[in-house]
Amino acid sequence: MSIEKVRKYFAELGEPERVIEFEQSTFTSELAAQALNCEVGRIAKTISVFVNKKPVLILMSGDMKIDNKKFKAQFAARPNMIPVDEVEALIGHAVGGVCPFAVNEGVPVYLDASLKRFDVVYPAAGNDKSCARFRIDELERYINSAGWVDVAKPKG
Asked: Which one of 13, 27, 82, 96 has the minimum C-beta count within 10 Å?
């Protein structure tokens, strides 16, 4: 189970308390925000896409979605969502628990500028009933980040 990989990852960093588990589902940004009693934007959702046929993760604010034009300008490719039945094998986490920690080797993780609006954000932690708490200035330390991008726009 991928939450165990995430627990191990944080334990090896000396921070096993990072993982927060809930009784209720955190499968979507909205459900995670309800569980945490916070605004949806503070949920750092992890989007799994192909860029030139290679898996890539984008961590962005839960109240945003990919802006195709910005994405193409950033990556010189259209965003193609990884099919649900392929996500776990390619990324290392199943849909609902996809997170930027303990991912398969070679999968780059980009941080979207939409997260910078907040002092604290909550990415998932390996399953659909978990998250982890981070200050924005901590994200790059705990995520093997490929860098910051600006590829999001507000939902709606």
From this structure: 13
Mean pLDDT score of the chain, rounded to an integer? 95
Collapse the DSSP code of 107 into the 3-class scheme (helix H, G, I; strand E, B; otherwise coil) and give the result. coil
Closest-CA residue to 60 (of 135, 156, 155, 151)? 151
> Given a cut of 70, is residue 1 above it in pLDDT?
no
Which of helix, strand or coil describes residue 148?
strand
Reported as a single tens digit per residue, the pLDDT across 68-104 is 999 999 999 999 999 999 999 999 999 989 999 999 9
**Rounded to an integer, what distance in angstroms lies between the CA atom of residue 116 and that of residue 28?**
20
pLDDT band of 156, cuts 50, 70, 90: confident
User: What span, in angstroms and rounded, lies between the C-alpha atoms of 46 and 61?
Assistant: 9
Task: Give the CA-trace dihedral at 96, 101, 104, 105, to 10 degrees.
Answer: 160
Distances 16 to 5, 32, 70, 97, 137 between C-alpha atoms, Å = 12, 20, 36, 18, 19
pTM over 0.85: yes
**Average of per-residue pLDDT across 29-50:** 96
Q: Round the CA-based radius of gyration of the chain to a whole number and report it.
A: 14
